[in-house]
TrEMBL record:
It is found in: Cell membrane. InterPro entries: MFS, MFS_trans_sf. It is a multi-pass membrane protein. PANTHER family: INTEGRAL MEMBRANE EFFLUX PROTEIN-RELATED, MEMBRANE PROTEIN. This is MFS transporter. Residues 235-249 have a biased composition (Gly residues). Gene3D superfamilies: MFS general substrate transporter like domains. Its main location: membrane. The keyword Cell membrane applies. It holds the Pfam family MFS_1. The chain crosses the membrane at residues 38-62, 74-95, 102-122, 128-150, 171-188, 194-214, 284-306, 318-338, 347-366, 372-393, 405-425, 437-458. Keywords: Cell membrane, Membrane, Transmembrane, Transmembrane helix. It comes from Streptomyces solicavernae. Residues 1-23 have a biased composition (Pro residues).
Amino acid sequence: MTSTPQPPLGAPTPAPAPAPAPAPVSAAERPAHRDGNVLRWLTAYTASMIGDAVYFVALAWAATRTGSPGQAGLVLALGAAPRAVLMLAGGVIADRFGPRRVVIASDTARCLVMLAVAALLTVTDPGLWLLAPAALAFGALDALFLPAVGALPPRLTTPGQLARVQGMRGVAARIGLVTAGPLGGLAVSVGGSAAAFGTAGALFALSLALLAAVRIRPLHTDADADADADTGSGTDTGTGTDTGTGTDTGPGASAVARAETEQPLHTQLADGLRYIARHPVLRPLVLVLAITELGFSGPANIGIALLAQERGWGATGLGWIIGGFGIGAGAASALLAVRGRIPRPGVVQSITLITGAAALAAIAYAPSMPLAVAAAGCTGLSVGLAGAVSAALQQTVTAPTHLGRVTSVCTLATLGVAPLCYPAVGAAVGTWGTGPVFLAGAALSALGAALSLCAPALRAARLPH
């Protein structure tokens, strides 16, 4: 940077130069739902979500045709294991090389794996020799993709739009869940497992093309890793940007990021965990996420099926209750996408979690199926709003150098750890029935909400506007 020339001693002081014209407000504060860059990322994310679900349909169908139910379950478990084991490493890699680069690389690899499996299935029958390695590879690639894609939103829009982006992301996820099942089933019915794997590969290719066109904000904390996304050679458009964490995102932070890339992966991982443990907002936020997910996950995923069987509601009742969850969560995402800002996210999170816990307990004690569906809708609305607000808050307060690692820890707390409670939930229902198990899950979730209220920094946290 060139120093400013000084006037000679005794010379009159020159008039100050006119201040540069401020950037247009419309460009800086463009709403996320009108930002083409955000919409490209959102479409890519939706295509990837649908591809994920179609892949699961294809894998489950091929696995059940290959061998016994136990072997089919083993194949499906092989896909989940590396995702849980490698999730934290995926966050380190996202911070080390830049989330955009990792997202594109992992999406490319997922596309190639799907197309390779589809090609092999056109000339041979599915077998464990093919499905097991494919499941392992896809699970490992998911461990790279999920933290990186979760770390992208702060690089796509201004901090004031992050809550709206999370709402839009939630709506996209619901669209993906609704459309993926029929699409996967149609592909299997038309062309068998090969067509389903090929459809998943095509969706990942579409996601990849859109992601390649996404421009990210040139945060200099990962400019060296994502140099291809820099919009101006040597132009510091992020110097001194205040992210609300007191972290410099200019050249000083870039030097820190470059120094981190020279550290071993395990050192960077330990640094990320220490960062969360010392952060006044992230520490209670991650703890609340883990506790409430343990409370909701078992009853919502295993308990509902056992409740429908116990009450004689059958598969129809199960479908309606799950649909109630989905409608409620979709409504929460749409509400946040439209409103765009939650003034007191920590307080809103606590209130919605307490409301969701009460609604979860009400499902098990509802005297009729319609009332159980209504309670499920209230649960989905409350939990969906709490989750979206938590994600926006997490991305707002996290330093750019640690976004990938923090995202991986939050993802592991919600997607990786909670399924471990499913066997215990099933055994508890068999021993005590659904009512006490739902009450225990609701109490655990309410405990998480209480911890949120007892954390002063989390309770006082704000989202930018």
